[in-house]
Amino acid sequence: MFDQLRNIDKAFKHVKRLTMVVVGASLATCCYTVAKSFQMISRAQARIYLVANGKAIEAFAAERKENIPVEAKDHIKMFHHYFFSLDPDEKVINGNISKALYLADGSASSKYQDLKEQRYYAGIISANISQEVRMDSVHFNVNQYPYYFKYYGTEKIIRPTVIVTRRLVTEGYMRSVSRSDHNSHGFLIERWRVLDNRDLKTTPRRTGRDFY
Fold it and tell me: Would you say 211 and 154 are in contact if contact means Cβ atoms under 8 Å apart?
């Protein structure tokens, strides 16, 4: 009789231990599954897709602070590209300058007005001149705000008979603004000025258009 009771008690303890093990394993599995689910959702939310030329390109979201140097340098590059890339066509000039002025404050607008009053753009159209700019490097200081930058580039002026190559060095500051269709990086160039724009060399035109 007592042996039978002891056997029942042992069996009950075994069942109790087994139940606790099963419950613990189930809880651990549930916690692991929930954690993995949150991780997968976070990864999925970090992925975005951009459509370019009819193709979906996967991109990843990142903190604004991590992207500041990359976005700022591209903003500087595009501003100088629009401001200095000109062709003997009034619509092209106005279109590029308009795009550039969305990326900078009144300091760029003042420079544009000065050149316009000097009939610089009228001369480009009447003399059939094309102008291109290539960025060589950008010094950008992320440790101060507004962010200071110094742009180094090469300007190429294509005239009917000669090609003039100029050095282009500018500086300015950048502050953060809201992103928009006209300003995708969300920066605004301030206190911009040209430090150096001297001629480096003049070469005769070859047959056809010359490129870098």
Answer: no
Pairwise CA distance, residues 182 & 146, whole Å: 21
Among the listed residues 209, 96, 79, 101, the one whose alpha carbon sits nearest the alpha carbon of residue 153: 79
Q: pTM value?
A: 0.69
Tell me the mean pLDDT per 10 residues along the chain, length 212.
Answer: 54 65 69 64 52 51 68 95 95 95 96 95 95 95 92 95 96 94 94 96 74 48
In this structure, are residues 170 and 149 in contact, taking their beta carbons and an 8 Å threshold?
Answer: no
Q: Angle CA(103)–CA(107)–CA(112) in degrees, nearest 5?
A: 85
- How long is the chain? 212
Q: How far is CA 24 from CA 14, 15, 135, in A?
A: 15, 14, 62
Q: Provide the H-helix boundaries in 47-166.
A: 64-84, 90-101, 106-117, 120-126
Token pair, residue 87, equals 């062709």
Q: Please check whether residue 135 is in contact with residue 127, taking contact to mean a CB–CB distance below 8 angstroms.
A: no
Q: Can you give the pLDDT at residue 193? A: 96
Residue of 143, 119, 138 whose CA lies nearest to 129: 119
Other beta carbons within 10 Å of 115 = 15
